[in-house]
Amino acid sequence: MKLIQSIQRAFEIIDCFNEDNEELKLNDISKMLNLNINTTRGIVNTLVYFSYLEHDQEKNVYKLGYIFLPKSKLLKSRNDDIVINNLESFLKEMANKYNVNARFHKILENNIVKILSEEPDESRYFLYIRDSKELPLNATSSGKLILKYSDDDFLQNYLNNIPEEKVSENTITTKTKMIEELENIDKNGYSTEIDEVAIGISSVAVPIIKSDKLVATISATAPTKTIKENSDDIAQEIINFIKNIQQ
């Protein structure tokens, strides 16, 4: 998929804003994205013009614009693949119970798009996961689910051309091993990623299927010890939640 760079940068600027960065100066955004200050200014001014960002002239900082409020209400009221209202509280419950980063991803054209993410409230440390970094499907738990539920042509082409470059020393790069992983998804009903993106960090992901098609995943990411000890319990709670909302 070919991306239009200017639009990509606009979305990357929007993604700079989160609970830890509700307000940012122009120079902060430029440094966070390693983006030329003049380029940053031009894109930011465009986002302000269309109300996606707001400029506080007194403090000379930028923040998200109010245009997101009505758009978020549209999403929450939409009769879609999953009920987002209930999902947010479920992710928070899982994050606190297992001390994980719990996430909901939509799957769009074999791409993983983060929609919601929750961290534990009481943990002294939590994982911050960068969404802008593209990772091969064979390295991540949600990516393996895409492979599992993709059509035969896409799957066979991917298996015959698995990226040789390892993200970590444990990244799966052989067809035989990846087929084993897909068979495990069949057996367990969920996928795992054990030290395959970063040593010491692992995840478990459960598919959300509609009309025999993968439409979303719910995943939990945490230190490897946490995932190994709790993967079955985490996955089963997610599976039960999905069954309830689909009914």
Report on the structure:
The protein is of the alpha+beta class and 247 residues long. Helix content is 45%, strand content 21%. The strands form two sheets. Strands 4-3-7-6-5 form a five-stranded antiparallel beta sheet. The longest helix is centred in the C-terminal third of the chain and has 23 residues, at 224-246. 28% of the residues are buried.
Summarize the structure.
The chain is an alpha+beta fold and 247 residues long.
Question: Which features characterize this protein?
Answer:
45% helix, alpha+beta, 247 residues, 7 strands, 9 helices, five-stranded antiparallel beta sheet
- Element order: H for helix, E for strand: HHHEEHHEEHHHEEEH
Helix share, percent: 40-55%
Kindly estimate the percentage of residues that lie in beta strands according to DSSP: 15-25%
Question: Could you give a short account of the major beta sheet?
Answer: 5 strands, antiparallel
Assign the structural class, choosing from mainly alpha, mainly beta, alpha/beta, alpha+beta, or little secondary structure.
alpha+beta
Count every beta strand, where a strand is a DSSP E run of 2 or more residues. 7
Number of contiguous helices: 9
Query: What gyration radius follows from the Cα positions, in whole Å?
Result: 19 Å
Look at the structure and give the mean pLDDT: 88
Low-pLDDT residue spans: none
In whole angstroms, the N-to-C terminal distance is: 35 Å
Q: Please list the strands of the largest sheet in the order they lie side by side.
A: 4-3-7-6-5
Question: How would you describe the shape?
Answer: globular
